[in-house]
Specification:
single chain, 5-stranded mixed barrel, 20 strands, OB fold (Dihydrolipoamide Acetyltransferase, E2P), BirA Bifunctional Protein, domain 2, alpha+beta
Length: about 500
């Protein structure tokens, strides 16, 4: 017994008591971890919804005990499974005195299996009249107090398993997450797109602003990088003859973290041959509207108290016009890059010595426009300097056929008519690599294999990338991206 007390003293008082109970069970030959399975016949919601047919029928449920009320020779408990909660009625005369006493020793949080008959109490609550109870796993840590729940957001993100136990609405968010992804997948499949998988590990450090995570392949003895996009591999597939392809997968960017950014996130990238950015905007509009209707039952959603209406058509405004409307600054009045940089300095807007006219326009957009775009809006015709993979506009080579979708003041999608001129693409890759080196990318290099693919011929193609997590935030009214990631990136505890 002294050995048992010493073990208990390593934990909190409640944890020690629970461990002592576990030891007693095991000493009596009732190891709760020995069970390999339990023959569940129904979930809680199936019993509740189907009570008319299940009344007085035997059912078997399994789940976690969240409450218990003992009244002498009988007790009531609530069991939570993956689909909700159901009340269980336990009477000593039905289960036997020994089993009843063991049941009374169980702790809140213990996982158990219950066999019994479905019935309705005099107060109208669907319940199970227990005939047999078995402990399937012992809960060795006390759950957070019932009325206060788990409020510490940092702890909720770190221990999502506990968060979902005590805050059932969290599970509903992730059930809806899966439904949203499945709806997007069905939309693409129904339109003839082929889902594919492309490499996560790349041998090249690509991208201008996006910083990659770096690792090392021991067998090949080379540095490798986690992908910051799926674009270039997907467009290789279009070159190879797949006219409609998409990929839903994880993207990794070694960047900052806030309510809308996580180092690893989920996106969908989609490419359609013989289409331009107008076609892709139409497709994105349809996809998001139809997903909202399928998942939420309406083309309108409320996000953080603001109603968002997905009714078509969504406005399409050029970046230059949007900036001029909100700031009065005319992009087309600048003759040189120096004119643009001087303009930003005069308006006390951040500017770097290497900024071009296109960079300056983008900075003004961030400063004056982005947070005002609450309803779904496409901003189109981006400067070529900030659009290294987009096709130039035929009537103005300073601009590209590129768009970004903004909702609730945030970017949700980025797409364009894909650049398929290998000579122009090489020149832009070179500039992109130069920019990446300025930002510290010592291993940045031109993707020669992609250029080789372009030289075999990429048909006119439209493409888009959509941030799945942000869309899920919108459709579940979640304030932070961490609320829609099962296990968000967290700094390790000291």
């Amino acid at each position: 017994m002294s050995e048992q007390i010493e073990r208990s003293q390593e934990f909190s008082e409640q944890e020690g008591i629970r461990r002592d109970k576990l030891q007693q069970l095991m000493d009596e030959g009732n190891n709760p971890y020995v069970q390999t399975k339990y023959p569940v016949s129904h979930t809680s919601d199936q019993v509740i919804k189907g009570i008319d047919k299940l009344l007085d029928q035997e059912v078997r449920i399994a789940g976690r005990m969240l409450s218990r009320r003992v009244m002498g020779k009988a007790a009531f408990a609530h069991i939570q499974d993956s689909r909700g909660q159901i009340q269980v009625y336990v009477r000593r005369d039905d289960v036997g005195e020994a089993e009843y006493n063991v049941f009374k020793s169980y702790d809140i949080g213990d996982i158990m299996g219950i066999r019994g008959k479905a019935f309705v109490t005099r107060t109208g609550e669907v319940s199970i009249h227990a005939e047999d109870i078995i402990l399937l796993a012992k809960c060795l840590k006390p759950l957070p107090e019932k009325w206060h729940g788990l409020q510490d957001m940092d702890l909720r993100y770190r221990q999502r398993y506990l968060d979902m136990v005590v805050n059932p609405e969290v599970r509903e968010t992730f059930i809806k997450r899966t439904r949203i992804i499945n709806a997007i997948r069905r939309f693409c499949d129904n339109r003839g797109f082929l889902e594919v998988d492309t490499p996560i590990l790349h041998t090249l450090e690509i991208g201008a602003a996006a910083r990659p995570f770096k690792t090392h392949h021991n067998t090949l003895d080379i540095d490798m990088f986690l992908r910051v996009e799926t674009e270039l591999y997907l467009k290789r597939l279009v070159v190879g003859g797949f006219d409609r392809v998409y990929e839903i997968g994880r993207i990794f960017r070694n960047e900052g973290m806030d309510t809308s950014h996580n180092p690893e996130f989920t996106s969908i990238e989609l490419y359609q041959a013989y289409a331009d950015y107008e076609d892709i905007m139409n497709l994105a509009e349809d996809m998001i509207r139809e997903t909202a209707i399928e998942v939420n039952g309406s083309h309108k959603v409320t996000y953080q108290g603001v109603e968002v209406d997905f009714t078509s058509p969504w406005p399409r405004i050029s970046m230059a016009d949007a900036v001029k409307k909100e700031s009065g600054i005319d992009f087309f009045s600048w003759e040189t890059d120096e004119d643009a940089r001087k303009c930003l300095k005069e308006h006390k807007v951040h500017v770097e010595p290497h900024f071009t006219k296109g960079d300056c326009l983008a900075e003004l957009f961030d400063e004056y426009v982005e947070d005002k775009l609450i309803q779904p809006t496409f901003i189109i015709d981006y400067p070529v300097e900030i659009s290294p993979l987009a096709k130039r506009k035929p009537d103005d080579p300073r601009l590209t056929e590129r768009f970004e979708l903004f909702i609730t003041g945030r970017e949700f999608a980025n797409g364009f008519s894909e650049l398929n001129d290998p000579i122009d693409q090489r020149a832009r890759f070179v500039r992109q690599v130069e920019e990446r080196i300025k930002l510290g990318g010592t291993n940045a290099s031109v993707d020669e294999d992609y250029l080789n693919a372009l030289e075999y011929g990429l048909p006119p193609t439209g493409g888009i990338g959509i941030g799945i997590d942000r869309l899920i935030m919108l459709l579940t009214d979640s304030a932070s991206i961490r609320d829609v990631l099962l296990f968000p990136t967290m700094k390790p505890l000291a």
